[in-house]
Amino acid sequence: MNKVLLVGRLTRDPQAFQTASGIKYARFTVVVSRQFGEDQADFIPVVAWRQTAEFAEKYLTKGSRISVEGRFSSSTYKNAQDETVTHYEVAADRVQSLETRAQREQREQREGHVATEVKPTVTTQPTPQPTNTTHNSSVQKDEIAQTKDVPLDVPWELDHLIENLRKW
């Protein structure tokens, strides 16, 4: 069984896209603190499709505390230098905000964000086609984000997140 559950914070606002056939998707990275070890975190790339992407675009911003349920996905492609590149990400089935609107607004105010209802326009991307791979993925080379996400200034401990969830 291929099932992934993440609890963490967004490293930046989700990036919204649309395939040529009109299917919405969003890409974002979740920083997840490791339970053991000192100040170690993993930066997990996530892709969400359709209604899940619309939710992410509309309600999530950099620093949002979220949970992601999905599956681990990988794809391979040949780059311009004819090298095989493997890309890993979580394909989200469900994304959930773990903070109230008031908490989000307080966080955004502390971080200097301006809460807006208007998001950037959606970029049209080609329709994903299956790649020549044995992995469970339909991500094309040009859809794979090559930019690095900017991490949050403060690492968030998973224990801290769980403790706050229990207070709800």
UniProtKB/TrEMBL annotation:
Entry's Gene Ontology molecular function annotations: single-stranded DNA binding
GO cellular component: nucleoid
BP term (GO), one: DNA replication
Xref: Gene3D superfamilies: Nucleic acid-binding proteins
Amino acid composition bias (Low complexity), ranges on this chain: 120-134
Keywords assigned: DNA-binding
UniProt-listed SUPFAM superfamilies: Nucleic acid-binding proteins
One Pfam entry name: SSB
Domain of life: Bacteria
UniProt region (Disordered), positions on chain: 101-146
InterPro entries reported for this sequence: NA-bd_OB-fold (IPR012340), Primosome_PriB/ssb (IPR000424), ssDNA-bd (IPR011344)
Residue ranges, compositional bias (Basic and acidic residues): 101-116
The protein's assembly and partners: Homotetramer.
HAMAP family per the UniProt record, alphabetical: SSB
PANTHER family given in the database record: SINGLE-STRANDED DNA-BINDING PROTEIN
Full protein name: Single-stranded DNA-binding protein
